[in-house]
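B., you asked whether I could sanity-check this one before it goes into the benchmark set. Here's the sequence:
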Amino acid sequence: MSLKVKIRNSITFRITGWLFLVMTVLMILTFAVFRLVSGSILQKTIRGYLLSSVNENTNKIAFYQDREQADDNDLNDVYIRYKDGWLEIDDDFLDEINDVQSALYTSDGTMLYGKNPIARLMEKEAFTASRVYRYMAGGGDRYFVYDRKLNGTAMEDLWIRGVVPLWSEERQIEDIFRTSIFFVPVLLLAGIAGTYVTVRQSLMPVKRIEQTASEISRGTDLARRIEIGEVDAELCDLAEAFNGMLDRLERSFEAEQRFTSDASHELRTPMTVILTQTELALEKERQPEEYRRALSVILRQGRRMHALIASMLDYTRIEMRPENYPLTDIDLSELADSTARDMALIRTQNITVTAQIQPGVRIRGNQLLLERALQNLIDNAYKYGKEEGHILVRLESKGCNKGSDKDSDKERNWGSDRKNDKDKNQGVILSVTDDGIGIPPEDQSRIFERFYRADSSRSSRNVFGAGLGLSMVRKIMEIHGGTVSVESLPRQGSTFYLVFPAESCLHKQI
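And here's what the prediction gave me:
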């Protein structure tokens, strides 16, 4: 990508450009509004000056019958012969205050005294009492005009006309605009520079994210994370989301490595056995019975490999994609009862499976995963059970709705004798008890580890497993927020407990 395209596509450049456009439009609108408002205010002010000046000048005119009556007044005043007497006009009548000029007229439009810059233009303009109006002169000059009729003896036919030009208002506004326009480019440049620096600094975490992602993509260090520090909330969320993605990628990568390592390790033995048996069988001509023995070994090892691969794939799916197993409202009583009845059909070594299920126990869980967990525990009890032994599946709740068991007294008493003193204050307890060979104390802390298999001599039969069944049960209980534990005595049997927290119960008892 060329430098020109990069600059054009830069977020900093685009934000700065948009802000420049917005600031320019806002300034234009501001000046337009200012021009409108200031013009209105100034016109109102000028009208006030005009009214005030004309009203004051009405008090500066007096009428006297005899000239001698006015001799005691100011000698600088102006005297005009009017009708059968004299008009005395104060000497400051001609003073221009705020550009207002006043003139004294008779009713027929004859100017007796004063100043009016547009007197000739307004010769035929009739007087309008007590109203300020706008007058447009030649050349586009505008004026405010105010006429006021005088009151008093012999002055009923006299008018004072005040005139003020509006160019003074326009001049003031233009002066303000000239001053403001000088600062507009400075303000725009300062705003753009400040925006550019602020946006650039604000987007620095994005640059660090990009650099970290590039470094990770060039190498294999998935343990690296983006340093969040003190950044804006939006960018902090972005960095945390990116770190969360890296966490998941790292877990996926590690799971893949573990899967590859574990698979190669676990498959090495059966593959070696299969290759050895095949080579021996093909080494020379042998009797049919010898071929059958070799094929039996190969079949057994093939089944072992099939079970191992299936278990590893199932475990990996559960470990890496727990969101694919949503928790819903399920009837755990029905699930436990139906699973126990299905598993009872196996009847290996004449082992009997019975159930002691409290009805109506409902929790938030995943039907498929919990069936798998219970099947693994019952299958484990089959593997390490004794001839004509018993397996008891028991479900009880503490803190949820209670029901009554419908099992035989013998089954209830036998289940109660088997570690029924385990302290569980609240929640749901699903347990599987067998009376098999038990688990040595040194193995009990490790049986939930992946690929851990205790000494095969403890089994009464020649069984094999992938070593993932109990580990999968633990992972399933973690997804449900519960725990799995075991209590066992050698040569007496084992009890596995699946404990669900009270928070997962539905319809808790009051």
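One thing to flag: The radius of gyration is 52 Å. Otherwise nothing jumped out at me.
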